[in-house]
Amino acid sequence: MSLVIVVGNPRTASRTRVAAEQLAADLSADPPRVLDLAALGPGAIGATEATPAVSQAVQDAAGARLLLVATPVYKASFTGLLKLFLDRFPPGGLDGAVAVPVLIGAAPAHLALADLQLRIVLAELGAALPAPSLLVEERELPAIADVTASWVKRHGGRVA
C-alpha cells in the first residue's frame, strides 16, 4: 500500500473523510485506500477477536508508505473509534510509515490535540511524523481544496 487514509469519524461519508481525501489528492495522483472505520463498525473494531475486515484494515494501514490519520476533535481528543483501531497495533506496528494527522476542529487551539495526543500515539507505534499536523477549522470546510493545497505547498515535500 502506498497511500492509506484512516478515517476515525463515527459517521460514514463524513466531512473528516472529505478533508482527508482532498489532502490525499493534493499529495499523490495515486488513489488512496480509504479505511472508513465507521463502515467497519465500532463493535467490530472494539471486539476482542478481530473480524477479517478489521484485520485487513490493520494490515493495510501497517503497510502504508504514507498514512493520513483523520479525526474530528471530539470532547477535546481524537475519537474513541480511532483509539480502538490504533490499539490493535503492536509497538512499532507503523514502522516505515510516514503519518500525517488530519483534524477537523472548531478553533486553532485544537491543533494542540494533534500535537499532545495523536502524534504521540502514532510515534509510539513507529510512524515518522516529519510535517506538522493539518487542522481544518470547520469554517474552512467550504474551501477545503484551498486549505489542503496551502498545506501541501508548505509541507508536502517533507512527506513525499
From TrEMBL:
InterPro entries found in the cross-reference section: Flavoprotein-like_sf (IPR029039), FMN_Rdtase-like_dom (IPR005025), NAD(P)H-dep_FMN_reductase (IPR051814)
Gene Ontology terms, MF aspect: oxidoreductase activity
Keyword Cell membrane assigned: no
Ranges of residues in domain NADPH-dependent FMN reductase-like: 1-132
Key word Transmembrane present: no
Pfam families: FMN_red
Entry keyword set: Flavoprotein, FMN, Oxidoreductase
Coiled-coil ranges per UniProt: none
The protein's name: FMN reductase
Organism (species): Actinorhabdospora filicis
